[in-house]
Amino acid sequence: MHRTLARPAFDVETVRKDFPILAGHVWCKPLVYLDNAATSHKPRVVLDAIERFYKEHNSNIHRGVHWLSAAATKDYEGARDKVRDWIRAAAREEIVFTRGTTESINLVARSFLRPRLKPGDEVLVTEMEHHSNIVPWQLVCEEAGAKLSHVPIDDRGQLLFDEKLLTERTRLFAFVHVSNALGTVNPARELVRAARARGIPTLVDGAQAAPHTRIDVRDLGCDFYAFSGHKVFGPTGIGVLYGRKELLEGMPPYQGGGEMIKRVTFQKTTWNDLPYKFEAGTPDIAGAVGLGAALDYLGTLDWEAVRAHEAALLARATEALSTIKGLRIIGTAKSKASLVTFDMEGVHPHDIGQILDQEGVAVRTGHHCAQPVMDRFGVPATTRASFAFYNTLAEIDVLVAALTKVRELFA
Ligand code: 7TS
User: Fold this and answer.
1) Domain 12-42+302-405 in CATH: superfamily?
2) How far apart are the CA of 234 and the centre of ligand 1, in A?
3) What's the CA gap between 264 and 284, in Å, rounded?
């Protein structure tokens, strides 16, 4: 009898077969896709789940008495349970579906922080945040006359955290779990613990952590955790906000409209229960179904093996890139996720990106929506190669060969 959920071993070539786009036949040219931090590819089971939803269950949710609506509601709410299980939340009410990390953070900024923020208060972030974890706080701070402070970073791209940065005026500490521009893995548990000891709520931006590790929000102890479906091998347009129930209960709605109400009159409207209070309008039902399928898929992987494989990709890339003349890796933290960001003396990242593209290698160039990181390292932009578990060591070699070519062209 075979009842093992996890596959016995991690074989990258077997895993690659689960991702139709990696077969490459649609473009008739090879592609080494190293832009996974921007968005990752989708396994066939995700594509099938979305197609099956539209073919067999498509209907609006929660409202219909007909069986099709009941089936769609079951699919959507089933996806919520999968998310709860995946991140080990205590209750399904703590899982709010959003459009993605950005919307999750904006929801917390508007509904949680804004009503509490008074002139002179502070919000603490870090110098390595994605703009999505800076601008929403900045907007509400400006409105309230509050201040946005940050934890600085060292030359390796690690936080220089000092508990003194958490002051009696700090109303929230929001920080990135894994940096998209440096790869740094932050000590999230310790940071949360330091904030909690002072009664300061925390939000963790998990957009780049969720694709690389199993998340356990109860172990982290954070109040809010945000991530995007499209980076965890699910579809675009769907994301998650985890929030501690006591806090979500005390928060006003983020948007008004269908499904987030209990009773509407022209005099007064009362709000629906959690999590529906935060899900105004018809949600991305198929997106939730796709995300649920992606998490089911991730659940079949041996995560110890995934971690080891990604560590090997990072080690091979770091070692090989370090030998290229004039190439400086930006972000050399002790604990890193599988991405490398770099600067090459005398070559603009845009040119690097274009030449790499001609060689069939997809990387990202630019400021990666983390301009404070660029400022910290004195560069306008960098080149970033970001890996997923379906990347191979041979693909790293293609990247290195292409970069060697760039170096020769610009010698
Ligand atoms: N936070 C981090 C750490 C991110 O890396 C990103 C997206 C976001 C928030 C926003 O996520 P979204 O799904 O709401 O857009 N990062 C990137 C990137 O590095 N390249 O493209 C998108």
Assistant:
1) Aspartate Aminotransferase, domain 1 (3.90.1150.10)
2) 14
3) 24
Q: Ligand 1: does its nearest atom lie under 6 Å from the Cβ of 37? A: yes
CB atoms within 10 A of CB 75: 22
pTM of the model: 0.97
CB-neighbour burial class of residue 250 (10 A; exposed 0-12, middle 13-18, buried 19+): exposed
Nearest to 80 by CA among 69, 91, 71, 70: 91
- 12-42+302-405 and 48-298 have identical folds: no
Q: Which of 40, 369, 371, 387 to mutate to test the pocket of ligand 1 (most atoms within 8 A of CB)?
A: 369
- Given a contact cutoff of 8 angstroms between Cβ atoms, the answer to whether 128 and 184 are in contact is yes
**How confident is the prediction along the chain (411 residues), in pLDDT tens digits per residue?**
344 455 557 899 999 999 999 987 667 777 899 999 999 999 999 999 999 999 999 999 997 789 999 999 999 999 999 999 999 999 999 999 999 999 999 999 999 999 999 999 999 999 999 999 999 999 999 999 999 999 999 999 999 999 999 999 999 999 999 999 999 999 999 999 999 999 999 999 999 999 999 999 999 999 999 999 999 999 999 999 999 999 999 999 999 988 888 999 999 999 999 999 999 999 999 999 999 999 999 999 999 999 999 999 999 999 999 999 999 999 999 999 999 999 999 999 999 999 999 999 999 999 999 999 999 999 999 999 999 999 999 999 999 999 999 999 998
Residue whose Cα lies nearest atom 4 of ligand 1: it is 207
- Specify the CATH number of the domain 48-298: 3.40.640.10
The Cα–Cα gap between 127 and 183 comes to 13
Domain coordinates of the chain in residue numbers? Answer: 12-42+302-405, 48-298
Residue 47 and residue 343 in contact, taking contact as beta carbons nearer than 8 Å:
no
Q: Which of 102, 176, 224 to mutate to test the pocket of ligand 1 (most atoms within 8 A of CB)?
A: 102
Could you tell me the two tokens for 150? 């940050």
Whether 85 contacts 299, CB under 8 Å: no
Sheet holding 364-366, edge to edge: 327-329, 339-344, 382-386, 364-366
Indicate the DSSP class of residue 410.
Answer: T
Ligand 1 atom with the shortest distance to the CA of 35: 20
For residue 364, give the ligand 1 atom closest to its CA: 20
Token pair in block for residue 261: 């109400």
